[in-house]
Amino acid sequence: MKRNGSRNCLNRRSRFGSRERDWLREDVKRGCVYLYGADTTTAATTTTASSSSSSSSSSDLHLVLCTVETPASEICAGEGRESLYLQLHGDLVRRLEPTERPLQIVYDYLSRLGFDDPVRLQEEATNPDLGCMIRFYGEKPCQMDHLDRILLSGIYNVRKGKTQLHKWAERLVVLCGTCLIVSSVKDCQTGKMHILPLVGGKIEEVKRRQYSLAFSSAGAQAQTYHVSFETLAEYQRWHRQASKVVSQRISTVDLSCYSLEEVPEHLFYSQDITYLNLRHNFMQLERPGGLDTLYKFSQLKGLNLSHNKLGLFPILLCEISTLTELNLSCNGFHDLPSQIGNLLNLQTLCLDGNYLTTLPEELGNLQQLSSLGISFNNFSQIPEVYEKLTMLDKVVMAGNCLEVLNLGVLNRMSHIKHVDLRMNHLKTMVVENLEGNKYITHMDLRDNRLTDLDLSSLCSLEQLHCERNQLRELTLSGFSLRTLYASSNRLTAVNIYPVPSLLTSLDLSRNLLECVPDWACEAKKIEVLDVSYNLITEVPMRILSSLSLRKLMMGHNHLENLPTLVEHIPLEVLDLQHNALSRLPDTLFSKALNLRYLNASANSLESLPSACTGEESLSMLQLLYLTNNLLTDQCIPVLVGHSHLRILHLANNQLQSFPASKLNKLEQLEELNLSGNKLKTIPTTVANCKRLHTLVAHSNNISIFPEILQLPQIQFVDLSCNDLTEILIPEALPATLQDLDLTGNTNLVLEHKTLDIFRLCVSALAMDNFAEGVGAVYGMFDGDRNEELPRLLQCTMADVLLEEVQQSTNDTVFMANTFLVSHRKLGMAGQKLGSSALLCYIRPDTADPASSFSLTVANVGTCQAVLCRGGKPVPLSKVFSLEQDPEEAQRVKDQKAIITEDNKVNGVTCCTRMLGCTYLYPWILPRPHISSTPLTIQDELLILGNKALWEHLSYTEAVSAVRHVQDPLAAAKKLCTLAQSYGCQDNVGAMVVYLNIGEEGCTCEMNGLTLPGPVGFASSTTIKDAPKPATPSSSSGIASEFSSEMSTSEVSSEVGSTASDEHNAGGLDAALLPRPERRCSLHPTPTSGLFQRQPSCATFSSNQSDNGLDSDDDQPVEGVITNGSKVEVEVDIHCCRGRDLESSPPLTESASTPCSQEHARGSCFRIRRQNSVNSGILLPMSKDRMELQKSPSTSCLYGKKLSNGSIVPLEDSLNLIEVATEAPKRKTGYFAAPTQMEPEDQFVVPRDLEEEVKEQMKQHQDSRLEPEPHEEDRTEPPEEFDTAL
């Protein structure tokens, strides 16, 4: 092994040994490079690097020790290779130059991801899992069939010509592109080749010879070759492929994303090629098939060379005079040669994503040029050459560096009609003279820095986009104006003169307008008006009575009343949510007969206007949202008049009943939301709503399960947090049923046969007793349209955090490394898919002695966390999106990403930082935003939500909505319900964590501290040698709702488990109390169950036990989770304590049913179908109460990771005492599951012995506990049973 010299690489190894590790530790600039063989490649289909050793031989994968100074040439010499090849993200493969340094490339890559520490860089560079993001090959992996356009090839008997003068001879026959190539078998590469163009020719069957075809070219000098095949299958395959080639009329060759350095040789024999796509390759100039040889394609009209990193413009391209379309975007050009003026036939030229600052004057010679793209370059002004290019009608310069909008320059370009200057640095506007511009019709100025904009000189302007600027005043000409989009500014005045008589669509939302502009009221053709999120106090009568208005959006204003309608109006959509309306106009429904959508949620409505004035209603209303008002039962009869209602939301009102006769008449109903009321029953006539597919009625007082399982189209049913006592499940369930949520029903009794119908499964990232009982972790992951990555993250990220916490005490370091390592662990799944991620970690605060605990929050993407402190929201996250983060948008622009008009990076995502999506590196990075906040006594709760939640709820509304809700599950569900009623059509997820932070260790209500929204059920825990400070008492609820238009697939139910690593389990109380109390860690509340939406297409499988239900118990096995179709048991430890035995009935067999043992609030029951279409993301869907144990003797590690990365969720235990200190450990450090105890083994205390038992247990506790300070000031804690059975 050579060790002399920093530039020398070490011997080839297949794995690390002690000598190698010692050598690496001596210098952080030393490391290793994993070298893959060519046959391991097909990078898109290989396994991860960590498994390569098992999936391929050691000769296919080995490591080479080297330094950051070791060049590729030295490694090649040591390995006997000609070249090394680099592959990023399982995509393209690039040949390294001899002077490039592979290890330095790896270090630079990791540094850009976010790793800072040199030692950590060295450690990560040696991790074989990195192969899914960056890997090296000793030979170029290739698929020649695709590269050469070879469709079919083989050795067959061939005869030339139509006559029989020629003999049959054995030849190599290749169907390549649009040609048939016939050559000698022996000298097929160097001998004479016969090229037969097939486009426009004929393929005929040779009847005199079996399995033979005649290939003929087109034209007067047509040639024919007869080919005899050996089998019928070969004959049919060649006939089918050749027939497709013959039928082609325009030859298009697509060789994009093939890691090419030159054009395949066979391609030059296809002279009929007119369009050649070489996008995303590594094309070279001076090679046998390089760019300098493309002039050989004499008929070439279209050429795409984008994303080839050329650096220099290939001048010989200017000799291809036939070109009409040329795409050279994203190649790193700093200038263009003057020879480009020779391409006189060029009509389309795309130069986006380069570093151009000027255009040559010779470009003006291209008089046929009709499309020129120079977006995302470095232009500081509009090039003067535009004046000569008279065929152009658009200036497309988005993402450049313009700071001044000079209208005088545009006035000199009479041929320009469309101007796209979005995402520049425009601050001011310059008008050289008073001359108007009669030519510009469309202008896009989005995402700039304009404060005032006067475009009144553009008298022909038809459409203007100026969203997301800083505009205070806007002045336009109204002669031709048709559409105006000016949302997300600071507008207080919009002046348009004359009145825009052609205006059809107007968007002035998210501004500071106090009234609707007068000219908008006079616009005679206006169809869409959006003035939501302003300061408007009244609706002009002229607007509401407009005869052209179809859609009116006035939500989030200060409206107190609406004018009375006198005449019929054509209004179809009316949004009035988040105002101060106490009533709607009496004639609204009788005059707006075309009204189909009405959203009046978040107002103060106490009644609704009648739907009809006569005997018959003519209402066409289909969607009605009235959530969060003051409506009572008196509004129900009015709803009957809307016979066409499809969606009805009446959540969070004051309904006490829903008459059966009224519901019976709503036969068209598809979605009904009655949650958050005081309903005791759902009318039996719901069975007549044959089209109903969604019923949401959580957080009511419903005691009888409605007859909804007979409905033929029912999909989603949510009856959680009610008073259900029993449920009768029919033998045959509707095939469409996907989600039945019965969590939080205290008294629900489920029979064993009922549980057998469904496969239970639970998975969530809501971890109690994290890091040996001194912390807690909560997370949320949003994959937008993919469900795979959110689940992978929720199953692995907490364990990554646990490992990082043990390596560093700096919250910024371990949180950042947690995200970066999780990004790596996504493997191949993270190459093309991405996910937003949010992680909240509560731990003892070592930096601030005045605070007992600190909250560290890290996030990428659009998931956010908000802390309620003293009733006020405190945002803890940062939204990484192009629209909301100008710094990130500028970073992405500087790296020459193409941002499409819908504000997405390369048209994929609006996020600039995510986990996964490695193929979008370096534009998308996984480095998180991190914030740490000391928790105080004023901190009440923590809300985690995804993008869909925060788009429809403000921080203040979210906090006020759940601050006084006692149950965290009900609180989370309320947030989701509000978001849906406010217009959310996407998947929405919310998590609510109730905190109880005390200054003196104990924060129980019984000790004088009362915080809003008490949760949970009282319990006490005996703790020895409890260290200070005490951990905070907390509880959480997780809810996730899916759009009714989307289908989900999963099966889950609440199951509970607590896991202990090396210590005894602390006691948990599952007894039911009438009044929940908020507790601290000295007197903790029991953890409540959690449930989780599970994707059916899990990418990992279990190697644990495949148990479902314990055959000896009438209850599910505690500590059970499933991934896909398998059920796993991690650990099962149960404790109980006797509390309030006088007020609670004795424990009987009925008390051991799942409803009382699984969940402190009742049975948690949920089903998911696994055969439905997975079209949406899957977010955490659970309820959990975090109980942070402060003593190591009672720590319970919740959420232990199984060997496949699964998480075991924590939930209430059975009322059993089971001491498991001697539970055997696996090699992984996790417990094996002990057996379930029989229900009849419960500890039952007769009433006549209760007092005696209490006294004995009290003495037992006093002998074990040290006296607490100020014990005399505290209410005596309840008794505890600590005797093992």
Automatic annotation (TrEMBL):
Residue ranges crossing the lipid bilayer per the database entry: none
Bias kind Basic and acidic residues: ranges: 1254-1277
UniProt membrane topology term: Peripheral membrane protein
GO molecular function, one term: protein serine/threonine phosphatase activity
Top EC class of this enzyme: hydrolase
Keywords, sorted A to Z: Cytoplasm, Hydrolase, Leucine-rich repeat, Manganese, Membrane, Metal-binding, Nucleus, Phosphoprotein, Protein phosphatase, Repeat
EC number: 3.1.3.16
Principal location listed in the UniProt entry: cytoplasm
Composition bias, Low complexity: 1033-1059
InterPro entries, A to Z: Leu-rich_rpt (IPR001611), Leu-rich_rpt_typical-subtyp (IPR003591), LRR_dom_sf (IPR032675), LRR_domain-containing (IPR050216), PPM-type-like_dom_sf (IPR036457), PPM-type_phosphatase-like_dom (IPR001932), RA_PHLPP-like (IPR055071)
Region (Disordered): 1022-1115, 1231-1285
Subcellular location field: Cytoplasm; Membrane; Nucleus
Residue ranges constituting the PPM-type phosphatase domain according to the UniProt record: 762-995
Record GO cellular component, one term: membrane
Cofactor(s) it depends on: Mn(2+)
SUPFAM superfamilies with a match to the protein in the record: L domain-like, PH domain-like, PP2C-like
Catalytic activity: O-phospho-L-seryl-[protein] + H2O = L-seryl-[protein] + phosphate; O-phospho-L-threonyl-[protein] + H2O = L-threonyl-[protein] + phosphate
Biased composition (Polar residues): 1084-1108
Biological role stated in the UniProt entry: Protein phosphatase involved in regulation of Akt and PKC signaling. Mediates dephosphorylation in the C-terminal domain hydrophobic motif of members of the AGC Ser/Thr protein kinase family; specifically acts on 'Ser-473' of AKT1, 'Ser-660' of PRKCB isoform beta-II and 'Ser-657' of PRKCA. Akt regulates the balance between cell survival and apoptosis through a cascade that primarily alters the function of transcription factors that regulate pro- and antiapoptotic genes. Dephosphorylation of 'Ser-473' of Akt triggers apoptosis and decreases cell proliferation.
PANTHER family: PH DOMAIN AND LEUCINE RICH REPEAT PROTEIN PHOSPHATASE 1, PTHR48051
Official protein name in the record: PH domain leucine-rich repeat-containing protein phosphatase 2
Organism: Saimiri boliviensis boliviensis (Bolivian squirrel monkey)
